[in-house]
Write a structure and sequence with these properties.
Layout lengths: L1 E5 L15 E2 L6 E5 L2 E7 L5 E6 L25 E13 L3 H4 L13 H7 L3 E6 L7 H10 L7 E2 L4 E9 L3 E3 L6 E4 H16 L8 E4 L9 E2 L1 H10 L3 E3 L6 H10 L2 E5 L15 E5 L7 H6 L6 E5 L17 E2 L4 H6 L10 H16 L7 H17 L12 H8 L4 H6 L4
Helix pairs in contact: 4-6
Length: about 425
């Protein structure tokens, strides 16, 4: 169940909040290509990322990159030829959120009877981003699944193979609606991991967790420590997931009854939680990644989306890149029935000053119009609650910057006396 009453403007997201992302009736298959060429990851001269599979006739298979529409082919003169017959399982990325989604989407095939009966002698191959290796938590996850990744072979030079098997995707991007969907094969793989966690759990003395990104974050994220302090006050244990092994994280997740996080790689881990657990997800900006909306449904969770950001300066068409600004919003405090004296929250003033300065450095003229529109009312309320409208005059170049921020939103400027 997904509750979205805590979002500033639910209508902004249209139907994506109410779409069902589990495809129960899809029957996954595989495709076979004779003489196909596998291209390793490469940054092309035009700056775009290449890699994936090209058929013998020269057709690039668009779903063989990191995900559909993400990568493209590139010209190769006289690729290496191999008599090997292989199973291509994808282009792997080292970011955790991609590892537990995109990197797993073809592995279902290795569990099937048809693989064991007809293709067990085929080599299993993949291509990879520079940031990927089968080490640490990435390997640990596959170990738990019972998958021996030591047998996987990375393709490091363009190679034409005698035969290439490509399993269908169990988590995929739909061409028409730009949303992600998953099948029972993907869900079963994740549930297997969860069951392992339940069977092998060791007792912990907390059942509320906040996964923070602040220990890992750069200047693209401002203000998350305020969220940490808020959730800690309400009994949540603050966890920086990258400091723990995956088994340790899984042990916490299967015993967790209440989970909270900003949306990103860390929040994708909710799919390992047990059914009927409570989850609070805080969008980093006015962008909801389709990955999260899909993995929300892998387990039967009680999920609440609550806005507690003012990321008015995210880059145009790249809202997921940032920079992001977090604070304790009225929507978040109301969810815990807490009254906050916003006028006393001077930390917000300093954070917001810095965020606006950061926006200047990152060229505010590139800011997303959608983000400015989405946050306009919340921004005005933020300033009024803290009686901080006049504070804008004390921020170097703030009048110029914020006038650009609210271009086309004149009612905000009108209410900002002195700006």
């Amino acid at each position: 169940m997904r509750n979205v009453d805590g979002l500033y403007k639910k209508e902004f997201y249209k139907n994506i909040l109410y779409t069902t992302h589990f495809c129960e009736d899809i029957e996954l298959k595989y495709s076979k290509y004779e003489g196909a060429t596998i291209l390793p990851y490469k940054v092309k001269e035009n700056g775009k990322e290449g890699g994936g599979v090209v058929t013998e006739t020269g057709e690039y298979l668009v779903d063989t990159g990191l995900h559909k529409k993400c990568n493209e082919d590139y010209a190769v003169q006289n690729p290496k030829y191999s008599e090997d017959k292989v199973i291509y399982i994808g282009m792997f990325n080292g970011i955790w959120g991609h590892h537990i989604t995109d990197n797993l989407r073809r592995l279902w095939f290795l569990e099937t009877d048809i693989y064991k009966e007809k293709f067990a002698d085929y080599k299993v191959v993949y291509v990879a981003f520079p940031n990927f290796k089968f080490t640490g938590n990435r390997k640990e996850l596959l170990d738990i699944m019972g998958i021996d990744c030591s047998k996987f072979i990375q393709v490091t030079e363009p190679t034409r193979y005698k035969s290439v098997i490509i399993p269908d995707e169990s988590l995929f991007l739909d061409d028409d609606c730009e949303e992600r969907f998953f099948t029972k094969e993907y869900r079963d793989l994740i549930h297997r991991v969860r069951e392992y966690g339940v069977k092998n759990q060791t007792k912990i003395d907390f059942d509320k967790i906040y996964f923070t990104h602040s220990r890992y974050a750069t200047l693209k994220e401002i203000g998350e420590p305020k969220l940490e302090k808020f959730f800690e006050k309400h009994g949540y244990k603050i966890i920086a997931p990258e400091k723990f092994s995956f088994r340790e994280q899984l042990n916490m997740l299967v015993q967790c009854k209440s989970f909270a996080s900003t949306i990103g790689s860390g929040s994708h881990n909710v799919m390992f939680m047990q059914d009927d657990s409570d989850v609070i997800l805080i969008p980093r900006s006015n962008y909801l990644t389709s990955y999260q909306l899909a993995v929300d449904e892998v387990a039967n969770l009680n999920i609440r989306y609550i806005d507690s950001s003012l990321s008015i300066l995210t880059e145009r068409n790249l809202s997921w890149i940032g920079p992001f600004y977090f604070y304790v919003s009225k929507e978040l405090s109301d969810a815990f029935n807490e009254e906050i004296d916003f006028k006393k929250r001077k930390k917000d003033y300093r954070d917001f000053k810095f965020y606006v300065w950061l926006g200047k450095i990152k060229r505010i003229d590139l800011a997303s119009v959608d983000a400015l529109d989405y946050y306009a009312d919340a921004l005005m309320r933020f300033l009024q609650e803290r009686r901080a409208v006049s504070l804008l005059n004390k921020i170097p170049n703030a009048r110029m910057i914020l006038r650009k921020c609210v271009n086309g939103l004149g009612y905000v400027i009108t209410k900002c006396k002195g700006v």
